[in-house]
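Researcher: Next entry in the queue.
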Amino acid sequence: MRISTERLYYEAESTGFRPEILEKVIYLIHLLNRFSEDPFLKDRFVLKGGTALNVFCFNYPRLSVDIDINYIGSADREVMLQEKNPMESAIENIVLDEGMVPQRKPSEHAGGKWAIRYPSAIQGQGIIEIDLNYLDRVPLWTITRVNSFKLGEFQANNIPIQDLHELASGKLRALFSRHSSRDLFDAHQLMNQQHIDIDKLRLGFIVYGGSSRVDWRHTKLENIHFEWREFQNMLIPLLRKTDLGKRDDPKSWAEKILTECKSALENLFPFRENETQFLHELLENGKIDASLLTSDRSLNQRIHSNPALLWKAENVKQYKNK
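Model: Structure for this entry, 322 residues:
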């Protein structure tokens, strides 16, 4: 697939997005379509993160420029290890078939991470990042296959994405862990414009938070903040020019997003007694007691078999036994 300079500038004019960012997302959409059509990949991955939210749930309040996916082929570790190389080879073969160059990057927990270089119509080459996670391979809730909103004439079709509450749980884990302006923007969209079942989100927030690198028991609303320079560099270029034109004072608008997001997230605090106990058992004793969070047998089972929680629990036990 190739996009001409003329076509790119036409689409940029009609959508209001910067052409160099728009080009990146057009190629991203095309890669997702290729992944969903691949015989090996199509039932072994699920899309998550900002791309799933902004491209499939929100109708492009901002562009999202990377592909975050989980391997979901099997909960069994041995099967996962057997399928790891074929999984990554399938991704790289598609990338190469499109005339792009995959460059491996270091990744946590033996995941797969690439910087995908593609020939750009306006700036020599562009880069799309792909992050493949193996730890979050047991979804809490049902995965659905959906079509994206259209971006000009471009659309991703039949792409597996996480349940909205799981998308939100992962996004909030990121928000409280790394303080990115993109995470803040997405969380604001989630909590103020989407119908969210708060009890369902609370469960996901605790489960995803439990596997975080930070001690989730110390999580509080005051932890959320942003750096204005990072906001300017990492978020504003992803927004429509027409939307930015409506903001007389972008910094005040950013502060407003922060205030409204914190207000909406008050529904998740303070932690209830059962939530605190779940985190205590996990982070002090290395024990996963899903019965503290749900009486649903199937959900209970998925929490107990969650590889990210199992990894966390094992690390706690090893640390305590030193």
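Model: DSSP finds 13 helices and seven strands in the chain.
Researcher: Noted, moving on.
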